What we know:
The chain has helices at 14-29, 33-49, 58-69, 77-85, 95-104, 117-127, 139-142, 168-177, 193-199, 218-229; strands spanning 2-4, 10-11, 90-91, 110-112, 135-137, 162-165, 181-185, 210-212. It is of the alpha/beta class. It has a six-stranded parallel β-sheet, sandwiched between helices. The protein has a two-stranded antiparallel sheet with strand order 2-3. Helix 1 runs parallel beside helix 3, helix 2 packs across helix 3 and helix 4 runs parallel beside helix 6 (117-127).
Amino acid sequence: MMIDLDNTLVVSPISSLINKAYEELAMLSGRTKEFVVTQAMNIHLNLIKMSTPRAFDWDYIADEVSKVLGVRYKADIEGRFSKHFCKEVKILDNAYEVLQKLRDLGYKLVLSTNGLMKYQECVIRESGLNRYFDLIVSPDRVGCLKNCRNFYSCCDSSGELITVGDSYVFDVYFPKTFGFKAIHVLRWRSIYEDTYRRLLSIDASVVADDVVENLQQLPSALFKLRSSFNK
């Protein structure tokens, strides 16, 4: 079973550093922050379409934006984040208890993320989540994002293929198209979700196999889903 990291198991403070980088780029260039964010978003979306790991490489995107703006700037989001912000990661829904229960039930747990390990490694380490997972899958390890089939190549096709996550696009729609069952964890709606849907021509008729409002509801949802495998 593949379980998403950001906004499913944890809330990461990295967005505050990304916003800080855009504010600094705006000050250096004399442009508005809104203009800088638009440039960054355009680069991000073009990379999403190519399913390249760089789509979530925030230092790379900041470097590319600085070139567009004609300024010299090094964001060092990776360095700032790992040194000063990683310990501020918030665990959601007492995830430790839920993950341990899933392991006790015999599930092989795979941690999945669109984030790169240079940002996520300290999140996983500082949160202590690493001790619950058999494997970690990230774009820089497999060469593409969650919208490509190869991202899921770690999973044995003869087993119970299940994904759990908060993003409809990346944790429900694409896994479903690759043969997985999907449980959607309802969180706050990402500001990017509708943009991703339009960009990737998502067919909204594809729906999750079950929906939960928090991780504590996951074991019972899995019980129902597991029953469907045995029919």
